[in-house]
Each structure stands twice: as structure tokens, then as C-alpha cells.
Amino acid sequence: MKSVYLFRKQNGGPRLLAFWDSSSHPENENRTVPARFTLTDVTFKDPVWVDTVTGAIYELPPARCTVEGGKTVLSDIPLYDAPAIITDKSVVIHLISARE
What we know:
Elements: E1 2-7, E2 16-21, E3 33-40, E4 47-51, E5 57-59, E6 65-68, E7 71-79, E8 84-88, H1 89-99
Antiparallel strand pairs: 1-2, 2-8, 3-7, 4-5, 4-8, 6-7
């Protein structure tokens, strides 16, 4: 079972998809399984996957973020028992720049 939440600022802007495997309690391992998400009325210009445990940020290859029938399809997305995020690179870079 997956927990999936989609966020957006009230005044618009890029979306932020948060998700994790909620089928059991968290473990001390970071083993992932591939997940697929189909999103309506959501697009990502430069999608990145953010690991909230390690803080690592990874660009998603174009093959993993496609548009099919007017819907955004995210495929082979790493999923594990801690929250991960998919959003536009501009959101993450903006947050990093604000801290400096």
C-alpha cells in the first residue's frame, strides 16, 4: 500500500508529490521497489526525486516521466518506507538557495 499526497502553494506554482510505502512500519533498511504514479492535470518541467532520509536529489530521466493520454505517468520510481518527493528542480534549487 502506498501513501500519496499532492501539494501546491495556494497561489499556484509547481506541484510537489510526496509518497511512501505504508504497508508496514518503517524498517532500518532503505530497500526500494519500483512504483508507478498516474497524475491528472499535473506536469513537471524538470522532475527530480528527493530522498528525505539522505537529502539526496536525483534528476528523473525523461523515460520515467512521460505524458500518456493527457496524464503524467511516473514509472520505475523508487518507493520505500520513508517519504520521498517528486517535484520540479526549480523548487529544490530555490529552497537550497534560500538557506545560503
